[in-house]
Predict the structure of Aminopeptidase N.
Amino acid sequence: MKDASPATAPKTFYLKDYMPFGYDAESVHLTFRLAPETTRVISRIRFAPKPDAADRTFFLHGEELKLISAKIDGQEVTPELVEGGLTCEVPGAPFTWEAEVEINPAGNTALEGLYMSNRMYCTQCEAEGFRKITYYPDRPDVMSTFTVRIEGDEPVMLSNGNPMGQGEGWAEWHDPWPKPAYLFALVAGDLVNHPGSFTTKSGKEVELNIWVRPGDEHKCAFGMEALKKSMKWDEDVYGLEYDLDLFNIVAVDDFNMGAMENKGLNIFNSSCVLASPETSTDANFERIEAIIAHEYFHNWTGNRITCRDWFQLCLKEGLTVFRDAQFTADMRSEPVKRIEDVIALRARQFPEDNGPLAHPPRPEQFQEINNFYTATVYEKGAEVIGMLKRLVGDENYYKALKLYFERHDGQACTIEDWLKVFEDATGRGLSQFKLWYSQAGTPRLKVSEDYADGTYTLTFEQSTPPTPGQPDKAPRVIPVAVGLLSPNGDEVRATEVLELTEAKQSFTYQGLASKPVPSILREFSAPVILERETTNAERAFLLAHDTDPFNRWEAGNALAKEVRVAMVLDGAAPDAAYLDALEKLVRDDDQDPAFRALVLTPPSQSDIAQTLFDRGHTPDPQKIYDAAETFTQTLAQQLETSLPRLYAATTVDGPYAPDAEGAGKRALNGRILSLLTRLDGGEQAARQYQAADNMTQQYAALGALLKAENGEAQSQAFFGQWQDDRLVMDKWFALQIACAAPEKTAATAAALTRHPLFSMKNPNRFRAVFGALAGHHAGFHHASGEGYQLLADNLIALDKLNPQTTARMCAAFQTWKRYDAGRQSLIRAQLTRIAGTDGLSRDTTEMVTRILD
Ligand code: ARG
Ligand code: ZN
């Protein structure tokens, strides 16, 4: 009996097993005969055996396909259907493979392959969805040109590349650029376009379109401008031009991720492209601009140069995130963008890197690749590129990038190719640097200092805790940007990048008149956790005087954390000196409002929990919540007399515009309103709600009122006003949960799952509810365990429809080992229950198993 492993035992794929496919795919012709439940896909593919192939197995991936017929060079053949695809005897010389399959888009709730969303046909092929469309070598290193014919009675029928012709009931498309199948896309339905155009630097006119469902036309203008800005920026900064006559974006309501860079036909989650002042917040506008840029930038970093295999995912994602962050910094504020990114990194990537799901930016194994579209691959992948740029300098960075595009255009590449380009362009060896790609875990950087007779020494010690499968870590190259300030606040040493390469290393500064105050890890020059014994007085000094804006914020953030930790551990009162420093900063109108808003944003409660855990304590979510409440209440009282003036001073007059300056002011205004609401019970918030002509202010007011448990009337009005707008309704669902008291969070979420507008089939709606639940630290981790149970119930139900979104949301449990034995056993019980579910998907099985281990 001991060999009776389940038939579905998930297979593990390893980087070390990489083998090229034995055939080139020279051209691909696809015909789609659209029908909701019985779409026919006819493929005609020219294959040529590779002369030097080590393995000539002709294996085509295929899943959930009904094979109707197959031919080789016009002769019927009978392929052998095997697990995950088919094999077939094929000639030793070039041949034409033809297959006809039937698929069911309407029944496809996994939203992978060809599916239907609101009666519209659309596709998502990355990573391995094309195999649900037809039999194909569905791997990124097989690149081919695609010609596509779509037959159906949909008014608009789109695919990649340039249009070749269309008539009654058909449309033909041709993409001249060889691409892997994961970049294939097809869209068909009743769509309207918001048109635009862009002239490239070499004078080519490109037609642009954003395609939406009728009724959403008024939400396209901002996205169109963002697209044009992205096209211009990529020319100006990287010298990269667009390469087709047409660029289409389509908005889709049901989508597992944010957006997808299909060649010439980007498909977006509607939440990541549709925007209007009445329905979108400032944060939405900024995110939409960034995602449009991200997908557009993929045209070069991803499409023209793609990945050899999925282990190399960060080759395109890390680089493209890095590029979109540069873009946002240029369009808006560089320090604000950096601070926002570090907040997000700590909120999403650090927990991953310091828990059971830790993996390197280039993983070496996976069961389901969709589980590796992670903060580590994306955001840490981008941090690694930021470090590389800092180490080689700007000029060398752009020199290396130029070489990358020259050398690898049209290829499917690896991290080794990427690093080689830097080595060749700069003459610098990067073998130790490469550890950032292979080692998981966040390095700890312990700093100590010494001063005597004008000589100042900083000593760094690096270490990385073990992560799954990696007990021992080697020292990495860590660029640490350091500046020194004199005790009166002058900068006595400008920023310099210290390069750590050893486990322990010292750096010396000579000729200082007095002991300086160090500003370490400026601009967050490396994704590490800095550990340094220092005083709150020194942190307050840096908050007031540091010349590096990031570190000024960081000092305030560290201070905020220390104060809360002391409140949680010792029941201390909020630190008076810190309250004074905050008050001074908030009232200082010479300071950027966006910066002030960021300093006023409390550290996340999950972050406090992790800090407590790292220092050997067991975090109590309720105590952390109470400390946060007490702190904010005390701050509101301290600011009492200035709040009305501050509120008035930060109110933006005139018509709404989603620019960075207005957004910064509104962010500060929102923080002020939430403080004010603690004192006036919601009078001002109710007035703001009433008067708001934009979603940023309407949403801020509603949030403040719900938090004060005084927003029932406005919540109902909000529902009445926006019930027909799915994206605004997502906000309504999420906000009620986010603002609920911890003991009511799970019940609020549960009640919302019974609301007629709740839907399991729409990932945005599911995430609105359960993302908000998981994001409410004290509510999700309430001692009752109701939050855990509710999430588990719903993950089990969702897994049958949509494994990908289910698996991603399992990450809510990844921090479970931080907590007390009671909570751990509650969570373990839920994870075990999920794991034991009959027919659980490969995706969710992998996630739950890794989290439980
Ligand atoms: N490449 C897309 C992006 O970065 C993400 C799509 C991933 N989709 C998925 N199902 N894994 O923008
Ligand atoms: Zn991407």
